[in-house]
């Protein structure tokens, strides 16, 4: 049983805010394959195409037959715990600050034996264990031994919380509360135990449905925030930046135009002004504050979530200028991720397929419901992943894009499907 | 220096120096927080006022402070030219760069509708209101601005200023009949208001839609909106200085609106 996390006391303001020391982060090019899978929530190991041997640690050639034809393949992670060790000393600053730390030796049913971080609910060896990959605070894949069946509060495990950005007791900024997606995210965060949800409220004179419902939630505080207005962003950052643990940037402008369908550039500019420049303004003002608090107690600043679009990967011509703005935002999010990495703040990108809202009214289903986006956000925070592709369309396009981006480009140009 | 008192301008300069003539600023400050007109989201939109620092005596420019700003022609306190409306699009001299400059200095009549607007945010100025005004203050001269005082500018909270509900905006303006009366019977220079437009918030539902825009601009007359401090003007006698920016084929422009007001002796 994991004891549920108790609401932490207020921080002692006379003490220096603890700074981040990242866990060991260096990985070779091959080992990054494991990180790439973990970034999407999968545990993958290399498997030899010639002799089917499962490899660990990652390597250039098969440990059994020396074939170089190794392929990353998802693993079930089932195995047996052979032994455990509890560290009471470490020369590594990250672990030194988090002792004691429990490690285990696991023999996977698939073959390899490996050393894992142990979830507190895993007992002494021998015991069945399920190995999963997570990203650590350095953003690199690490392996974790989970109990085959976890208890209700298993996410509150001290070690696991170091790998995730669970919203429980955290203070979250949602940049746009006026959209159905924004409202669903706010509801989901409150349900997930967020302590405060600041909700951005641009152009307050525009009354939109659903807004009153979230405004009434006791955890919710409305804040003036208009990402087109640099002053509004910097004023809010000055006010609450030092308290925000998770930023969720869901503000976007979405219009359904290609190049020829709309004269002028005003719509494309409006999309760019929120989807790209808005993200830039937000990052310039809020990122420094988050970085400064990335090791500040159990509810330290933890994550930054960007609502992108599957159209960021490949242009969907009927929504061509929107796609371009999301491609720009995606590129910027990669820059933000690189800049946040040294502080251990996770940058999570959501690439949903078409959302079921008024701007996709003419698109046939399947479309992602706003609640689907919201649950994907909370799940990504809890699982500590980096890239999420919510919805059937996103999943399918991702597969086609990975298979051959040029083919997908031609298919989208010919009408989408 | 006695010559300064013998010319009209000289007398004006002296009157300004002695505060016998006050200069009243009728302009809202250009700030990102001031709302802009809101149209249905699928339509083209007027840009709000936005401002970004270029440098502030720092590494971006060590000795100087300056900003870039952006806005639409109809942002903040602004001037509407006849070309703004389809009814005025073929008139001569209908854009801000070609309007005769003497029109930018003109007398103003201020009709006080503040009590009515307080009671009813959708209040429409009537012909009877104009006749009552004239009964008290004399006939509105041709070539004068008519300004509708509603004290709407005292709603400093943007939400109250915009005053939207699910049926749209609720702000005062002129009735269709009043506009036609001012244009046809009084040959006014233009119409000015304190709310976001010269037409009422529900003006789209009048006949014709947006009558003030339709008739004023169709007759080559002008509009001023988002005015403030109209409560500091006398009913008659003030002179407005309101030259818009000289934008080529501009449909309007943000501007500084000043009123010269002579103190009673």
Give a structural overview.
- The complex is a heterodimer of chains A (417) and B (265).
- Chain A is α/β, with parallel strands linked by helices and 417 residues long.
- Chain A folds into two domains: 32-163, no CATH class; 171-413, NAD(P)-binding Rossmann-like Domain (Rossmann fold), CATH 3.40.50.
- Chain A is 30% helix and 19% strand.
- Chain A contains twelve helices and 14 strands.
- Chain A is globular, with a radius of gyration of 22 Å.
- With 265 residues, chain B is α/β, with parallel strands linked by helices.
- Chain B has one domain: Putative cyclase (Glucose Oxidase, domain 1, 3-Layer(bba) Sandwich), CATH 3.50.30.
- Chain B has seven helices and 15 strands.
- In chain B, the strands form four sheets. In chain B, strands 1-15-13-5-7-11-12-4-14 form a nine-stranded mixed sheet. Chain B has a two-stranded antiparallel sheet with strand order 2-3. A two-stranded parallel ribbon of chain B has the order 6-10.
- The radius of gyration of chain B is 19 Å and the shape is globular.
- Classes of the chains: A alpha/beta (417), B alpha/beta (265).
- The A-B interface holds A 203-207, 226, 228-232, 255, 264, 266-267, 270 and B 32-33, 35, 38, 42, 44-45, 48, 50-52, 158-159, 161-166.
Shape designation of chain B? globular
The description of the largest β-sheet of chain A is:
7 strands, parallel
Biggest interface, residues from each chain: A-B, 16 and 19 residues
Instruction: Please report the number of helical segments of chain B.
Output: 7
Query: How many structural domains are formed by the residues of chain A?
Result: 2
- The percent range for helix content of chain A is 25-40%
Q: Which percent band covers the strand fraction of chain B?
A: 25-35%
User: What order do the helices and strands of chain B follow?
Assistant: HHEEEEEHEHEHEEEHEHEEEE
Which sheet architecture does the biggest sheet of chain B show?
A: 9 strands, mixed
Q: How do the strands of the widest beta sheet of chain A line up side by side?
A: 10-9-8-11-12-13-14
Kindly, what is the distance between the CA atoms of the first and last residues of chain B, rounded to a whole number of angstroms? 24 Å
What is the assigned CATH homologous superfamily of chain B?
Putative cyclase
| Level-2 CATH architecture of chain B | 3-Layer(bba) Sandwich
Per CATH, the class of chain B reads: Alpha Beta
Oligomer: heterodimer
- Number of DSSP helical runs of chain A: 12
Which whole number gives the mean pLDDT of chain A?
Answer: 96
Instruction: Find the structural class of chain A using helix and strand composition.
Output: alpha/beta
Total strand segments of chain A: 14
CATH third-tier fold name of the largest domain in chain A:
Rossmann fold
Give me the Rg of chain A, rounded.
22 Å
